Amino acid sequence: MNTPTILLSNIKKRYGGHEVLHDISLTAQDGDVISLIGSSGSGKSTLLRCIPFLEVPQAGEIAVGDNRIVIDNVDEKLSAAQQRTIKQMRMQLGFVFQSFNLWPHRTVLQNIIEAPVHVQGRSHKEATEEAERLLQKVGLYQKRDAWPSQLSGGQQQRVAIARALAQQPKALLFDEPTSALDPELVGEVLRVIRELAEEGRTMIIVTHEMGFAREVANKAIFLHQGMIEEQGPPEQVFLDPHSDRCRAFVHSHLQRNPTG
Amino acid sequence: MDNAFFSQTLLALLGGLPLTLNLTLLALIGGALLAVCFNLLRLTRFGHYPVRFYIWLFRGTPLLIQIFMIYYGLGSFELVRDSVLWPVLREPYWCGLIALILNDAAYTSEILRGGLNAVSPQSIEAAKVSGMSSRKIFTRITLPIAVRQALPAWSNEVISMLKATSLVSTISLMEMTGIADAIVSSTFRALEVFLTAAVIYLILSLIVSRLLTLLEHRLSPYQFGAR
């Protein structure tokens, strides 16, 4: 078997006395599109944020490609070597946040070339050319010199996706990418993500858009109270789940959002 | 109004303008550099204690006393008089400048702290996931955003420093106020002389606030309320 693009194994995460993730394992092979669903507080965002170490798990193993970190002792600070590995892992991932997180003091284009030029050391010219290509792809080339605050939420999120792509990541991670958007702006962002899935990019998507999650993914995972309650092909998870909780959850969401 | 006397006074006062501007500019630069250092120190485990003490000390005492302490006070220690620093510390210019820098640093440090606090954690997370080192995050994301947020408050400090330079006239420095004071003691025409000096300060502060507004618009045309 090939090295998985992303591997999480036995991830445990606790906030104070409250255990948010119990022993979760997950593998994304190259080209996988995984949708992570579950009610708020189920731990799905926390799990996603553990991959680039925005949250540090108490225990478990996280690997992105050949870079791997095993945490067995919570109290030990991350070593310098581990910090370097985390940096490598982050450079190979593109992360898209719920609230876009564009840098307000940089224009659209500057947001996109920031990491390629100043982290990856690519030339300004090459990075700009690629940024312009990506802006065309997300349909915002004409906004290249605009400031984030001049854009709608949907446009900001598309810029954020272009920024993530500019890192030439091995995998893209989406943390509820449409939850902060007005309903009429959701479609434009989902369209871009769907295109990326069709290109065969490896992605993990945390979302409440059930129709979208079913349609775009080749694997769905339902989390409940920090545990994987149901996983499998989307047809099974959404249409014929083993777990009653998953059935109830999917049912209530599909009813609320019939078109997704 | 005596036109001849007025133009004579104006010319004489403008002779002190270079020193006024020199002190203002260097105090602001020195103060800003120290303010960045203080804010970095603040992030360390124990560093925030001395920083807080420093700010309390320099904001809580009059600038005039700080100038006197450095100019007259330090010279009373033999240790200082014998040190290699004495050639610097016996000069009114250096003493005045040092006092202004130290005082400005305390205020600017607090202004910058406000700007740093206003940087959203989201901006920093976005920088982290891109693989930036902590140092790059500070220099390329946190500090530039903080500076933009702090600029309106800092422009108050700039104008305040411009006027505060007048206090160094008390240790014999001939900047504009020092010259005005000298003219008054020889002519006794206090009203005309000080009024002329006041008008120059007014015009300077107008120019400074205009320049800073321009800078705000330049740095962030669509952000932070500078529409």
TrEMBL record, chain A:
Cellular compartments per GO CC: plasma membrane
Record flagged with keyword Repeat: no
A Gene Ontology molecular function term of the record: ATP binding
Residue ranges constituting the ABC transporter domain according to the UniProt record: 6-250
Matches recorded under CDD domains: ABC_HisP_GlnQ
Its membrane topology: Peripheral membrane protein
Location in or out of the cell: Cell inner membrane
Gene3D superfamilies: P-loop containing nucleotide triphosphate hydrolases (3.40.50.300)
InterPro entries (alphabetical): AAA+_ATPase, ABC_ATPase_HisP-typ, ABC_transporter-like_ATP-bd, ABC_transporter-like_CS, MetN_ABC_transporter-like, P-loop_NTPase
PROSITE patterns, alphabetized: ABC_TRANSPORTER_1, ABC_TRANSPORTER_2
Keywords carried by this UniProt record: Amino-acid transport, ATP-binding, Cell membrane, Membrane, Nucleotide-binding, Transport
Alphabetical list of Pfam families matching this protein: ABC_tran
PANTHER family named in the record: AMINO ACID IMPORT ATP-BINDING PROTEIN, L-CYSTINE IMPORT ATP-BINDING PROTEIN TCYN
Family of this protein: Belongs to the ABC transporter superfamily. Drug exporter-2 (TC 3.A.1.117) family.
Protein name: Nopaline permease ATP-binding protein P
Native organism: Duffyella gerundensis
Gene designation: nocP
